[in-house]
Amino acid sequence: MTIRRLTPDDLDRCAVLAADRGWLPERRKWRLLFDVGEPYGIDAPDGDGLAATNILTRYGADHGVISMVLTASRFDRRGLGRRLMEHVLEQAGDRTVSLYATEFGRPLYERLGFRGVGRTAKHTGVFRGERSGRTRPATEADLGAILELDAEVFGTDRSAPLRRMFSFGEQVRVADGGFGHAWRNDDNVVIGPVVARDEETARALLGDLALEAGGEVRMDLDLAKEGLVAWARGHGMGEPWEVAQMVRHGDLPGDRSRQFTPYMQALG
């Protein structure tokens, strides 16, 4: 079975494959990942859609993120997921590569040389609180400062998805020493990325973005940031679902102490 580069014509097939694995269709998310990343897939040998997918998003010359690692349930245990992962890792070359792994996927990634470097939990709920008064809506004029701060904190160039925040997301907010973004997924509003000089600034951004969004929101929080996790739970963000952050060939770039939520798990 041949591995090929996917095209926008495959987006509906990706949504069908996601549904087969119990995921939401997340068409807007897939479309963004197709725009900023390299989607690969294997066509189903029975002619019915895709058998497997994987997306590599390159950041600068030294880092990459792997996401949307899916295999159709009827092709489980045939090695397709591993074969596609090996192909994508070849494309990544000498880059440090990271991903978020469920317990189901973790054994494969460990066999391919990934190691766990942390735990993140998806928290969802209706945020309860008051506006901080410390943030404001961002404009395109703020983009330069946002990109400069993010390059310093993230440690490599992820300007491609950041430049799309104003068109992809519902809102972008800035504070003195930070910025945050919120985008609508199928069933809630995801808050990310949030980059800030300290936890107090991050709380202001998270809270104001959540209150502006209204309804159910999602925050993917690093469990090592125990104070922030407790604050979020105290403001209505519950039902955590944990994944492992894993890395291969080196360490995660940047200053993780100032990265408070990823853009999305698929983008780091």
Describe this structure in words.
This protein is of the alpha+beta class and 268 residues long. The protein has two domains: 3-94, Gcn5-related N-acetyltransferase (GNAT) (Aminopeptidase, 3-Layer(aba) Sandwich), CATH 3.40.630; 122-243 and 257-261, Aminopeptidase (3-Layer(aba) Sandwich). Helices cover 31% and strands 34% of the residues. Strands 1, 2, 3, 4, 5, 6, 7, 8, 9, 10, 11, 12 and 13 form a 13-stranded mixed β-sheet that branches. Strand 9 (178-184) and strand 10 form a beta hairpin. The model has no long low-confidence stretch (mean pLDDT 97). Keywords: Ribonucleoprotein, Ribosomal protein.
Which labels suit this protein?
Aminopeptidase; 2 domains; 268 residues; alpha+beta; 13-stranded mixed sheet; 13 strands; 9 helices
Write the SSE topology.
Elements: E1 3-5, H1 11-20, H2 27-36, E2 38-43, E3 50-59, E4 63-71, H3 80-92, E5 96-101, H4 106-111, E6 115-126, E7 135-137, H5 143-154, H6 159-163, H7 165-168, E8 171-175, E9 178-184, E10 189-196, H8 199-213, E11 216-222, H9 226-234, E12 238-248, E13 259-261
Parallel strand pairs: 4-5, 10-11
Antiparallel strand pairs: 1-2, 2-3, 3-4, 5-12, 6-11, 6-12, 7-8, 8-9, 9-10, 10-13
